[in-house]
Amino acid sequence: MFQIFTRQEIAPKTVHLKIEAPLVARKVQPGQFVIVRVDEKGERIPLSICGFDREAGTLELIVQAVGRTSHEIYDLQAGDSFLDVVGPLGVPTHAEKFGTCVLIGGGYGSGAILPMGRKLKELDNKVYGIVGARTKELLIFADRLQAALDRLFITTNDGSAGMQGLVTDALKAILDDEPVHYVVAVGPVPMMRAVSDMTKPLGIPTMVSLNTLMVDGTGMCGACRVTVGGETRFSCIHGPEFSGHDVDYDELVARQRMYAEKERAALEEYLKQKEQSLCQA
Ligand SMILES: Cc1cc2nc3c(=O)[nH]c(=O)nc-3n(C[C@H](O)[C@H](O)[C@H](O)COP(=O)(O)OP(=O)(O)OC[C@H]3O[C@@H](n4cnc5c(N)ncnc54)[C@H](O)[C@@H]3O)c2cc1C
Ligand code: FES
Hints:
By secondary structure, the chain is of the alpha/beta class. It contains nine helices and 17 strands.
């Protein structure tokens, strides 16, 4: 069992968890993820590692409640446990001395870019961050990114914090101002696609972390299949980071929606069960 040591609600329907997972913490590298399961009947879902402490044997995760399993995790409290935490999975983020790097996060991606930013800083890069959200309350990890990176740009759709607009508006402002040598984007697919569309004509290498459906996480089931540069790749073992300029985004989106009806029904059932058990209590 993998105990939850701390649980903090950092945005609506979004929790930051610090969990016990000493073997994963010992080996994990920035860019990797775990697959967790709440209990023996539970679904396995992938979560990025947004922090780790090798000595304490802990991992930090951010979970956004979008469907049944992420709601089940959201409802866990400090002291509760995960049945399984499998990892570290995936290829670590590629890091070298690039020059000026821009890391862009949306949603849980704002947490995932923190360890990458620290690694790129260690290698003497200038590292800018951009985090975006619809509104100020939905911003994630802005304080921690501000402390870790050379500069953080914040964008909100409604202008309630930082620059009004999208992360691509902040990226454009940086690109207009100085040369950029490397870009990483982690977040919703439309955001990663828009970032890649902006950097492709400029020839700036751009990595995106693909949030495909996953089941086993070992390259056996094929659930996480994506097409990159015309080739079939498995996001769990060849990724999750790929060159954003080469991803077939239309196929990615279509595959993400494959089980939308079943996912909606599963969430409704869970919320109904939860309401019934609250009424009985
Ligand atoms: C490598 C990787 C790392 C990830 N890291 C994190 C993380 O750190 N924190 C986090 O909250 N989530 C993360 N995700 C996404 C997370 O795994 C999914 O949100 C989760 O599997 C949804 O399960 P569910 O049962 O709650 O929802 P489901 O019932 O499976 O889905 C409900 C709805 O959520 C949306 N959705 C489903 N799957 C995904 C997906 N993979 N990506 C985006 N939207 C989806 C769809 O609109 C879907 O209809 C990551 C995914 C991958 C592949
Ligand atoms: S999750 Fe099964 S092959 Fe990647």
